[in-house]
Each structure stands twice: as C-alpha cells, then as structure tokens.
Amino acid sequence: MNHPLAVISGGSSGIGLACARLLGGEGCRVALLGRDEARLAAAAGALRAEGIAVEARCLDVRDGPRCARVVDALAAEFGPPLWVIASAGIVEPGFFLDQDPALLEEQVATNLLGTCHLVRAAAPAMAEAGRGHIILVSSGAGLFGVAGYGGYCATKFAVRGLGEVLRIELAAAGVGVTVAVPPDTDTPQLAHELSRRPRAIAAFAAGGPPLSAEAVARHMIRTARRGGFLSAPSWKLRAIAALGDLVRHRLAAIQMRLLVGRRAP
C-alpha cells in the first residue's frame, strides 16, 4: 500500500511520537491524536520537516463518540489502519487513601477507557481488511503493584487484561495485538510523575535509569512484527513477566518494609 495508515494516540510526545517517527520513516502515513493543540502542531511540523506524511487531529480519547468519528474519517480517506498504537496516558502518584478520588477517575478515563475507545473505533476496519497491528501501552506497573500508584497500576493492569482478550478475539481476523510494559521512560509524563512520586517509595519505583522513548518504541514495533504479545524492553521486566507470582510477592514484601512506620490517614 502507498503510505499505509498508522493511528497513534498520545502521538504528540514521548513514546507515541517516537513510534510515529519510526513508522513514518518506513513510509507510513501517521495520524497523530492528542489533546494539546499546540504540542500536536509542533510534533506534526517536526515530522513533516523530516519528510513524513502526517495527519494531526486534536482529540481527547476520553470522548468515545468523537474518537469514533475521527478514526472513521481517517479510515474513509486513507484506508483501514495498518497500525494502531494506544499511547495516550496519564499518571498521578499518591497513596490511595490520601489521594483525591477525582485523580483515580481521570486515570481510569484516560488510560483504560481512552484505550478502549480507540481500539473500538479502529479494530472493525482492521478486522474487515484482515490485517494490522494493535499495540496497547501498559507499563511495568501493569505487571506488579507499586505503592503510591493505586490508580495507575489499576488502569495498566486493566490495559494488559484487555490486550490478552483482544489477542484472542482478533486472532482469527488476522489482527495482531501486543501489550507494551515499559519501565520509566524519558518523556514529559515522567517529569510530571517524578515531581509527585511519594518519597518513601521513590527509590524502589525508579528501578534504574529511564529508557529513551525511541528504545521503547523500537522494541514495541519489533515485538509486534514478530507476533509477540508482551513487549518488555528491560531484562528485569522480562524476568517479572516470566516468573509471575513468585517475583510479585517478593516485590510486595520489599515495599512493605519500606513503608514500615507509615500511618494511613
């Protein structure tokens, strides 16, 4: 196909933008979806300057009906997506009993429901075409619980669960599904998160230096092309995914020791 379509939510920065640069460099027409109009325009302009075919659509993925309209219009003009990458997400650290419940609702609306809206909008055309790749961006926090990240972990566990179901349901239609579980990644979102990360858990939550968005994007796309389900770009996360419950119980015990003496409100 001439310029197959890649639809990327959260495409104006971070992992989404890195995916757009990689796929656009291979000849895809990238449709960037983002809710910050200024940042979206800047990202689209930078990609066009690199010779990449770009469509930019200001969209908040929390709005399901508008998400459907935008994706339908893109598919009608450029054909069914070959790639759909659900990268839009937010993180608001804070201990569960301390935190404003509205912040939990915002994370659910963006990270989980926004992902559902994008996939529901794009997958029917992909299934009808009988081809394509869907990548859902979860997190290392979608593999094990991290204190101070109740809302974020809940949504990222849910995204991983959604991916497991979609992988089964879309296989017969020829649509592959991959779930990415990156560690800390050098993005604007990480800068926001670090300023709010609870001090008692900060050293544990960091887990090492952050990866670049480009490294995470390369691993995601390579895993999807190979038909892999879980894209874990660090050996630690691959070990946690492989060893499952044994490692999760050990990590929980470590965190409990770190929080000894802390009192719930």
Automatic annotation (TrEMBL):
The lineage of its organism: Bacteria, Pseudomonadati, Pseudomonadota, Alphaproteobacteria, Hyphomicrobiales. This is SDR family NAD(P)-dependent oxidoreductase. GO terms for biological process: 3-keto-sphinganine metabolic process; sphingolipid biosynthetic process. GO terms for molecular function: 3-dehydrosphinganine reductase activity. GO terms for cellular component: membrane. Gene3D superfamilies: NAD(P)-binding Rossmann-like Domain (3.40.50.720). It comes from the Bacteria. Residues 4-174 form the Ketoreductase domain. InterPro entries: KR_dom, NAD(P)-bd_dom_sf, Sc_DH/Rdtase_CS, SDR_fam. Signal peptide: none annotated.
